[in-house]
Amino acid sequence: MNSTLRFLIAHVFFWLSTLPNTFRFFGAIRNVERTQKKILLQILAANKNSKFGKKHSFGRIHTPEEFRTRVPIQTYEDFLPFINEVATGGGSILTEDPVRMFEPTSGSASASKLIPYTASLKVDFRRGIDPWIFSLYLKYPRLFIGSVYWSITPAHSKNRYTECGIPIGFSEDGEYFGALQKWVLDTVSAAPTEVKKIEDIETFRYCTLLFLLARKNLRLISVWNPTYLVILLKDLPRLLPELVLSLRSRKIPKCPNEIRRILETKLHCPSGRIRELEELVCAQRDSEKTLYESIWPKLSVISCWTDGLAHGQVKDILQMLPRVAIQPKGLLATEMFVSFPFFSRYSVLSVNSHFFEFEEVGGAKQVVFAHEVERNKQYRMIVTTNGGLYRYDIGDIVEVHDFWRGVPVLKFIGRGDKVVDCVGEKLNETFVEKAIGALLSLLDIKAEFWMVAPEKISSGCYRYVLFLESKFGVTPAKLTELEESAEKAFQDNYYYQYARSLGQLASLAVFVIKPEDSKTATEFFLETSYRLGQRFGAIKMVRLHRYENWAKEFSGYYV
């Protein structure tokens, strides 16, 4: 059986497996209010005998309004005692359904947090994932006859478990799918899952590129953070000769022996494909195409985040692959599945995955249900799931862009909870981004990377540091002006000014990043965040970070 027919059979099987949940979604959107009420009552009934359910009298709640009255809005810290109890062996704590694993969050502004996963929660994710896959294939039918790359990220360590033996973490998108779907994905995937066992980032990238190069018929790339893809691809022109030699010899350098043996048995590249790549090494390609287009001429679509800080990285992808379609990811957090692209520029609410509430941004901060939201208004998401998170404030701000058959169509605006508070200053990321962004524009400073983070300088005293990378060079006079102006702008925050007056905060400093080893500040940021426990492929770029030791991670100097 030739590869095209094998891919077609596998893809058709995969697409057909999404139909039941797609039909359920179409049934659910007939009446959003009724669907949401049904989901809430099912969650409450299933968990009324859990410790959390008894505490909040789940058995006596019969309407969404009663639920809103009895259960206050919760943060992760509110759930932490319960999660710790589960992690040490407690049963029926947050859910009656046993916790099968914990997934670390990709916590963009704090240390990683463990999120409990139950079998029911995985079903809830599938209720959103399957309709997305269904529509993806219909919109890009050429996916049926090619290979795909679903994000695989390197493992932090082997066999991580909690004190009572509950596994911690999965490392690839395929884990969100069921067993049969995952088997099909393994058949058509451009990179084998064993790649995730490589802990060294550089070796991981090399092996991933090696397998992607072997697939001329690559049709889809699905990642979370576009920065991950940009960094993966940026060194390809430099590494291409070495990679082609590895393909011809079927030898993988620098890879741990036990993993290398497995990967080398799976490294198959037709001789004709190798000759094509060798011609590209010799620069024999269509001058109207970029190198990346010449390598993957059949690539149809890249699925990734596009909103917020990801927008700039999407532009970098389009410079490499200008003719590829970019499909924005929906709002999917470690804890829950909120929305997905479904025949729309933005994403529709996954109304039959979880129970959703929306707190209006600004004003009276009224909390409304999914059927009550209004077009062009911004809301903070509050979600109840089968994973044991009830009225959980996920901190994401969305805007209701439109409605599709009565279902809210959401646009992700940003995070609403990124507040750093070392000594009571309550510095918010939105405030920081506006203040520094305006100053950089005013001073005509072009920054490839900038971020603000606290730094402890003595007992009880902190200061904030603006970390800045600019390829164009910035004069000492401008850096001094930036430092003074940023400090002045931050003092517009009453609590910051008060902490300064008490001597709890020192004046803001600017740190100029001078990366070594040809790595950019963004790469150092991603690798440090990965070392701190975040999933490499899902790390989000931020403007305000809580980690206090960035000056030790970056190479450079204070102004």
| Spans where pLDDT lies below 50 across 5 or more residues | 106-111
The count of strands amounts to 19
Class by SSE composition: alpha+beta
Terminal Cα separation, in Å?
A: 64 Å
Name the shape in a single word. globular
User: For the report, how would you describe the main beta sheet?
Assistant: 7 strands, antiparallel
* Tally of helical runs: 20
Task: Write the SSE topology.
Elements: H1 3-17, H2 19-28, H3 32-46, H4 51-55, H5 64-70, H6 76-87, E1 99-104, E2 114-118, H7 119-139, E3 147-150, H8 179-188, H9 201-213, E4 218-222, H10 226-234, H11 236-249, H12 257-266, H13 271-281, H14 291-295, E5 301-304, H15 310-320, E6 325-328, E7 339-341, E8 347-349, E9 355-360, E10 367-369, E11 378-384, E12 392-404, E13 407-415, E14 419-420, E15 427-428, H16 429-442, E16 449-458, E17 461-469, H17 476-490, H18 494-501, E18 509-513, H19 521-531, H20 550-553, E19 556-558
Parallel strand pairs: 3-4, 4-5, 5-6, 17-18
Antiparallel strand pairs: 1-2, 7-8, 8-13, 9-10, 9-11, 11-12, 12-13, 14-15, 16-17, 18-19
Short description:
This protein has 559 residues and is of the alpha+beta class. The chain has helices at 3-17, 19-28, 32-46, 51-55, 64-70, 76-87, 119-139, 179-188, 201-213, 226-234, 236-249, 257-266, 271-281, 291-295, 310-320, 429-442, 476-490, 494-501, 521-531, 550-553, and strands at residues 99-104, 114-118, 147-150, 218-222, 301-304, 325-328, 339-341, 347-349, 355-360, 367-369, 378-384, 392-404, 407-415, 419-420, 427-428, 449-458, 461-469, 509-513, 556-558.
